[in-house]
Amino acid sequence: MVIELSALEPSGIGTNAILRNFAVLREEFAYPTLVAGPARDGNAWFGERIPIPFLLNLESVSTIPPDSYEPSHAGAYGGDFVPTMVPWGPYLWGILTQ
Known about the structure:
Elements: E1 12-18, E2 33-40, E3 43-46, E4 50-53, E5 62-64, E6 91-93
Antiparallel strand pairs: 1-2, 2-3, 3-4, 5-6
């Protein structure tokens, strides 16, 4: 079987995780925070005021093992995507909700 992905158009609501005391957001987010924002017009909207253009490919999908999760540096695949960690039926996280 061959599956050809011709388009990937996120829509709905996406969630960003902000780490405690993170860089330029240190004063705004002193504690770990989840920020939800809309995905529309080819952008993910951070706080509904800062557009972040989508540059989508399959590596932009984050994965999480079913037993635990620890943040890591952005590896060769970007973000926390590590192909060896992806079992059958992985948990998928990212802006591709709804």
